[in-house]
Design goal:
The chain is α/β, with parallel strands linked by helices and 427 residues long. Helix content is 26%, strand content 28%. It has 12 helices and 17 strands. Helix 3 packs across helix 4. It is globular, with a radius of gyration of 22 Å.
Length: 427
C-alpha cells in the first residue's frame, strides 16, 4: 500500500543518529582471536523492517566507525563503540537514551547481521559499498524557509529541453528510492537516460528527505500545496534560464498530482504523468485497504477519510491505523483529499502524456482512463509489463515487489523512448 506516511516509522528508528559521544571509542577485542582485517571498510545494506526496507551505509574502522542513512539525510554519524572478535563485529550507537546495536559476522564476502533497537530485532545483510559516480550538478533554488537543493542532469548540447522530475509519495528520494520499498534507481535512470537523448532534467529530494531534510522540522507542517509551491519555484527558475529551449514536467505516482497542479501555475511545454492516480486519493486508499483490514478497521478508515475530506481532524485513531491517520499527518491528508486529479488535469493547458504500466500493483488502468477522460486530448500509452517502479515485472505480487529493491534492473524498454519522442517531437 502506498503510504506517506510510513516515513515517520523510519525516522523514529534512527531519529537521533547524530549524537556524538567523544569519550566512547570502541576498541579491538583482546584475546586469542584477532580481528579479520577484511571487516574494515565501507559496507551497505538494507534493514528489513516490517513495513519495508531501510538502506544504510556503515563505515567500519579499527577503533571507530560512522553510520549514514541517505534517505533521511543522515551522513557520517559516529558510533559510540565498535568491537571485533575474529570474523565478528559489534557496533553500538547511543540515541538519546535509546540503544542501537548492530551485530554481524563476516561470511562469504558479506556481513550477516542484526539491527536491534528498543526491543526490536531486524535482519541486515551488509555488502561491500560501491561508490556511485555523481553525474549531476547541484543547484540551490530559493523556496519558503530556505533553499531547495536540486540535481541538474545536463544534456550534451545547449539549448536543450529540460524536464522537472517529481518523485512519488512517502520517503521517496530524487532517485526514486524509498526507505520503505528499497533502492531501484528508477528516477535516476530516467534522468541519465533522457540526458543521453538530449533532454536535461532536474530532480530533488522532497522537504524532510535527503539533501532537503532541514526544510521540514515538523511533519504536520507539510501539505501537497507546499510541495506544489516548491515545484513552481524550480520551474520558474528553469523558465528564466536561456540554456533551455522548453521546460517540461514528469510526475511519478503522487508526483503526477503535484506536477499537474504545478503545470496549471506555470508556462510549461508539456506534462508527463507516470502511474498517476486519476481518482481522489480516498477512493484509491479504500480500494487498497479492502482485503487487508478487518471490517471494523475498514469502517474506521472510511469514516476517518470522510472526516478529513471535510477538513475535520480525527481525534481517536486505533493503534493499527496510526501509520496512516496519526495526528501529525492529518493536515497533509486534508490537503491531499481536496483534489480530484482528473478534474485538475482538465485545467492544464500544456500537452499531456499519460503513461500506465499493465503490471502496476499500486495504480491501475482505471486511474489512467480517468485522467484521459479528464483531458480527452491527452495521449494515453499503456506499457505492457511495466510495474510501479517502472521496471519490467510479472503480475505475480512477490516477484513484482522484488523489483522494488533491485537497482540492477533496467527501466522498461519503451519508457524512455516514449517520453523522449513526446517531449522532443510532440508525438
Amino acid at each position: 500500500m502506498k503510504k506517506l506516511l510510513l516515513l515517520c516509522c523510519s525516522l523514529l528508528l534512527l531519529a537521533a543518529c547524530g549524537q556524538k559521544e567523544d569519550n566512547a571509542k570502541g576498541k579491538e577485542t583482546k584475546g586469542d582471536n584477532k580481528m579479520n582485517e577484511q571487516l574494515v571498510g565501507k559496507w551497505e545494506g538494507n534493514i528489513e523492517l516490517p513495513n519495508g526496507v531501510l538502506p544504510i551505509i556503515v563505515d567500519l574502522q579499527k577503533d571507530s566507525g560512522k553510520l549514514s542513512v541517505p534517505a533521511q539525510g543522515i551522513s557520517n554519524y559516529p558510533f559510540k563503540s565498535i568491537k571485533y572478535n575474529a570474523d565478528q563485529v559489534s557496533v553500538s550507537i547511543n540515541l538519546n537514551g535509546s540503544a542501537i546495536v548492530i551485530n554481524g559476522t563476516l561470511k562469504d564476502g558479506q556481513i550477516e547481521a542484526t539491527f536491534q533497537q528498543n526491543g526490536g530485532k531486524f535482519p541486515l545483510v551488509l555488502k561491500p559499498f560501491k561508490e556511485q559516480p555523481v553525474t549531476y550538478e547541484t543547484l540551490k533554488i530559493p523556496v519558503k524557509d530556505g533553499q531547495l537543493t536540486v540535481a541538474l542532469q545536463k544534456a550534451s548540447k545547449e539549448p536543450s529541453p529540460v524536464a522537472l522530475i517529481i518523485a512519488g509519495s512517502g520517503p521517496t528520494d530524487k532517485d526514486g528510492n524509498s526507505a520503505i520499498a528499497g533502492k531501484n534507481d528508477s528516477l535516476k535512470m530516467i534522468a541519465e537516460g533522457l540526458a543521453k537523448d538530449g533532454i536535461a532534467t532536474v530532480r530533488y529530494d522532497k522537504r524532510g528527505l535527503g539533501d532537503n531534510q532541514s526544510l521540514l522540522t515538523k511533519e504536520e507542517d507539510i501539505t501537497i500545496d507546499q510541495y506544489v509551491d516548491d515545484a513552481v519555484q524550480v520551474i520558474n527558475t528553469l523558465l528564466a534560464d536561456k540554456a533551455y529551449s522548453s521546460v517540461n514536467i514528469i510526475g511519478h505516482s503522487e508526483g503526477s498530482l503535484i506536477g499537474l497542479l504545478a503545470a496549471q501555475k506555470t508556462n510549461v511545454e508539456s506534462f508527463v504523468s507516470i502511474a498517476g492516480t486519476g481518482r481522489p486519493i480516498d477512493e484509491v486508499l479504500l480500494e487498497q485497504l479492502k482485503g487487508q483490514l478487518s471490517s471494523e478497521l475498514l469502517k474506521e478508515s472510511t469514516d476517518a477519510l470522510a472526516s478529513l475530506k471535510k477538513g475535520e481532524l480525527v481525534k481517536n485513531v486505533s493503534p493499527e491505523l496510526q501509520s496512516l491517520f496519526r495526528s501529525s499527518v492529518q493536515p497533509y491528508m486534508i490537503s491531499w483529499l481536496k483534489y480530484n486529479p482528473a478534474s485538475e488535469l482538465a485545467k492544464v493547458n500544456s500537452r499531456v502524456l499519460i503513461l500506465q504500466g499493465t503490471t502496476d500493483l499500486q495504480v491501475v488502468a482505471t486511474d489512467a482512463e480517468a485522467l484521459k477522460k479528464g483531458k480527452p486530448d491527452a495521449k494515453l500509452v499503456n506499457l505492457e509489463g511495466m510495474n510501479h517502479v517502472l521496471k519490467n515485472a510479472p503480475a505475480d505480487r512477490t516477484e513484482n515487489l522484488a523489483t522494488y529493491s533491485n537497482p540492477s534492473l533496467p527501466l522498461h524498454k519503451e519508457l524512455l523512448p516514449t517520453i523522449q519522442q513526446f517531449i522532443m517531437n510532440g508525438k
